[in-house]
Amino acid sequence: MMFRSLLVAGLIATLSTPTSAEPRTASIRDPDTRAWWRITEQLSSDAMEGRDIGSSGHDRAGRLVADKFRAAGWKPAGDNGSFFQTFPVHESRVDSAVVALIQEGTADRHLAFLKEFSVRAADDLPPRLEAPLRFAGYCRPEDLTGSGGKVVACINTRRAGLTTGAERVRNAQVAGALGLIQVDDPGFTIEPFRWPAAYARSITLADAPPPRTGGFVVMTMSVPAFARLAEGSGHDGAVVMAAGGAKQPLPVFDLPGTFTARFETSRRDYTATNVLAVLPGSDRKLAAEHLVLSAHLDGYGFGEPVAGDSLYNGALDDAAYVATLIRFAENHRGKPLKRSILLAAFTGEEKGLLGAYWFTKNPTVPKASLAANINLDQLRPLFPLKLMTVLAINDTSLGETVRTVAGSMGIRTQADPEPERSLLTRADHYPFLQIGVPATGFIFGYEPGTEAEARYREWYEVRYHRPQDDINQPMDFEAAGAFHRFFYKLAQTVANAPAKPTWNPASRFAPKP
After folding, report:
1. What is the spatial distance between Cα 211 and Cα 219, in angstroms, rounded to a whole number?
2. What backbone torsions phi and psi does residue 49 show, to the nearest 5 degrees?
3. Nearest CA to 305 among 184, 461, 195, 460?
4. pLDDT over 90 at 209, yes or no
5. Residue 16 — very low, low, confident or very high, per pLDDT cuts 50/70/90?
6. Residue 160 has pLDDT above 90, yes or no
7. Rounded to the nearest 5 degrees, what angle is found at the Cα of 93, between the Cα atoms of 89 and 95?
8. For residue 466, how many other CB atoms are within 10 A of its CB?
9. pLDDT value at 333 more than 60
10. Strands annotated E in 1-103
11. Which contacts of 360-368 are long-range, i.e. CB under 8 A and separated by 24 or more positions?
């Protein structure tokens, strides 16, 4: 960590940062990249209020995107001849929560909502919870003996070979526990959880069951907060969690006192909106097929302040790549490709890929016409583009096309080297894979221990889902331009190829005969 911090401090100066004397765009030499960043600045400005799903700021951003698609000569591909596909969603929210460990003869140990713990929102979240508290290691069935009627705390590990989040919840419920506290895994350094949490909300498509847990309370908690609760138990909470982070055997023990919690919740129903545009293909036969190019328009909006800033602008996540779709539209004004191109600025990605799921369930073009999806998310142009991680690279022929196009530009490709982060399932290409449509997405790659890795890790520590992901952050604009040239060439190659992408029969997503 010390190496990374010192290295990042020395490297930030080499990345492009704005100054009061010189507008940032003036320092960008490539015209396409300069135009792209101007659009990014518009979409991630404070006026868009972080583009939270269902918000007025999101509506303004959506209208801006639709206006730019229209100005580029693209046709509406939404509902009723519009650029918008609207769908209903349901939201559960924890407005406030008070948690404490009460022990006779000692001061009550209160924890700060969103700063030290959070709660999974659900329509049936009970207003109160009071029970003994027990640490149950990894929440394996054998760890949970004697947990009936208690709240159990377990390490929130994401490493292969250990329990998953779903397994921990299920195991605790089967054991008769009343609730589960998942404590941060300090050993999962490739993407550590950072506090505060922005808010505690669950949003679902309105045609799906609302979020319910049967009254079972699911929480997350920081290591320092758990260590405070463990005082007097005979165990050092931080030491216990460090052992779990090293995948070592963990003790099972009761924490002193009574765990108490009070929750205030609210619910609401509203509509959300995807922005869709199409450029009909030029080939009489291939025009019936659609290549979907996507990015997500929504961000976090307003949330718990970080360093005094409560507006989560979402510049690189993902305003910048909606801007890429707009630049693609502008570059192809009056220049159709053989296949039709459908541009999709999905919403609700940050709340569970909602817009992409709605579109794949309710496509505005024939489902059978969906030839492939190339999704733009998880991209961080912070260092030169020499290596690129390609998601689902071995699942379809898209992977080989990516290798060929990238290789022609001197960019090496690799499969995801960190599958435990589950990046494949966390972005809008995933719903397409699930319905049998070949899809892919990209991540700027790096060699372990290099400057590139230091910059990448710093971004996740400081800016990911934070107000600091704004237009003032360090950038490598030459790398951004290189990625755009790759993306433009890839989209053109797929759109103009005689055959659409095909499945590798060994892929777990491949349609069954």
Report:
1. 15
2. 55, 35
3. 195
4. no
5. low
6. no
7. 150
8. 24
9. yes
10. 75-76, 84-102
11. 360/431, 360/432, 360/434, 360/435, 360/437, 362/85, 362/87, 364/77, 364/78, 364/79, 364/85, 364/276, 365/77, 365/278, 365/290, 365/340, 367/435
**Averaged pLDDT, 25-41:** 92
Pairing of strands 252-279, 84-102: antiparallel
* Inter-residue contact 153 to 136 (CB < 8 Å): yes
Count the Cβ atoms, other than its own, within 10 Å of residue 29.
Answer: 10
Listed in sequence order, the residues at least 6 apart from 385 whose beta carbon sits closer than 8 Å to its beta carbon are 411, 444, 479, 482, 483, 486
| DSSP for residue 118 | E
* Single-letter amino acid code for the residue at 147: S
Burial label for 487, CB within 10 Å (0-12, 13-18, 19+), is buried
Residues in Cβ contact with 373 at an 8 Å cutoff, skipping those fewer than 6 apart: 291, 292, 293, 294, 428, 429, 432, 437, 438, 439, 440
Q: How many CB atoms lie within 10 A of CB 472?
A: 12
> b vs e for 397-432, b when ≥16 Cβ sit within 10 Å of the residue's Cβ?
bbbebbbebbeeeebebeebeeeebebbebbbbbbb
- Of the candidates 184, 190, 188, the one whose C-alpha atom is nearest the C-alpha of residue 240 is 184
Distance between CA atoms of 420 and 185, rounded to whole angstroms?
Answer: 13
Whether residue 446 contacts residue 383, with contact meaning beta carbons closer than 8 Å, is answered with: yes
Orientation angle between helical segments 320-331 and 477-496, nearest 10 degrees: 50
| Length of the chain, in residues | 513
What is the distance of C-alpha 428 from the center of its chain?
A: 9
Exposed/middle/buried for 246, CB within 10 Å: 0-12, 13-18, 19+? exposed
pTM above 0.85, yes or no: yes
Q: Which among 202, 182, 362, 187 has a CA at the least distance from the CA of 267?
A: 202
Phi, psi of 96 (to 5 degrees): -155, 155
Strand partners, 344: 276, 294
- Please give the C-alpha separations between residue 28 and each of 115, 320, 345, 428, in angstroms, as whole numbers: 38, 15, 25, 29
pLDDT at 5: 41
Radius of gyration of the chain (CA): 24
Taking all residues of the chain, what is their mean pLDDT, rounded to a whole number? 94
Nearest to 182 by CA among 127, 252, 118, 126: 118
